[in-house]
Amino acid sequence: ARSMAGDGPGAASTEPSRVTELSLNLNSSMVQVQAPRLTLANGLLSVGQSQPMQGSITISPALKDWVLEQINPVFSDIVSAPPVKWRIPSIQFPLDGDMSRLSGALQVEVGEVRLKRSNQFAGSLIVAEGSTDGSVPALIEPLRVEISSGRLTYRDFRLLIGRFSNDWQNKLNMSGDIDLTRKPPYVNKISFEVPFQSIARTAAGFKQIAGLAEQITKAIQGLPIDPGTLLLVDISYSGPLAGADGSPAQLTEAYSVRIDEQALERVTVQDVVGTIKGIADLFRKKKPQP
User: Fold this and answer.
1) Are 139 and 169 in contact (CB under 8 A)?
2) CA angle centred on 252, ends 248 and 254, rounded to 5°
3) Separation of alpha carbons 13 and 263, rounded Å
């Protein structure tokens, strides 16, 4: 590490700003960190884009509960995973804890994992048929986080659950907005966007309603369009990330259903009319024969 004090015409009348540069290289069985250049100045620890900070870390219960789950609840359902690769291309971290001064970017790569079934929404989509430990394979695609003045946001974060032949059973698109300046940090919104047909397909895996789901599936197969392909279910979480005692808090859930406009653009008016008529026929009671 080395320190530098500013000088110049105003140096005699004002306290010179002090800049400290250091590097960090850590390699253990659990954590690897490479930080070729860190800068300490004006109460901020900074990383520049020309020399990003990067590394990997093995997922532990503490990492899940206190870090990953705070970004997105889906991380709490991980049973096994490879070491998480992370990269910080830029950051300004306030050493005094004033998160309104926190800005930067974070990239996280997890890859293929196994997820358990849980009461949390993503976990409730898991049907672990044929699994001895109640888990299923899943793919967590790269997460790219932006932080500006203590507000952490991300979008287009994808989770694929349950390998189905060469595809995945459920596909979730997620976004997040978290205020780190509040104490405790507050989730403005973490949202999951799920195709309706994914939920219906998962429901068919439950023995309690398997018969009904099978009847509905067979009936829908005769329609011009599967209605489930035109609907998206939005599930959102909000609330404080910790309780009064500092322990992780249960977030509030909300649900809504909307039309997938991109999917709607790919169908014809005749298909839509035929599908509406077909749905009506499914629920119309048969008249008694004379």
Assistant:
1) no
2) 150
3) 66
Q: What is the per-residue DSSP string for 146-167? A: EEETTEEEEEEEEEEEEEETTE
- pTM equals 0.72
CB 187 within 8 A of CB 152: no
Mean confidence (pLDDT) of the chain: 77
H helices of the chain, where? Answer: 61-63, 69-71, 121-124, 196-203, 210-221, 261-264, 269-283
184 preceded by a cis bond (ω within 30 of 0) = yes
Tell me the residue type at 230: L
Residue 201, pLDDT > 90, answer: no
Alpha-carbon separation of residue 126 from 115, 165, 171, 199, 261 (angstroms): 8, 16, 11, 10, 27
Both tokens of residue 37?
A: 């250049």
Question: By 3-state DSSP, what share of the chain in percent is helix, strand and coil, each rounded to 5?
Answer: 25, 45, 30
Per-residue confidence at 261, pLDDT binned at 50, 70, 90?
low
Coil, strand or helix at 276 = helix
CA–CA gap between residue 65 and residue 75 (Å, rounded): 9
Tokens 């309706």 — which residue? 196
Q: Convert 218-242 into a string of H (helix), E (strand) and C (coil).
A: HHHHCCCCCHHHHEEEEEEEEEECE
| 3-state SS class at 76 | helix
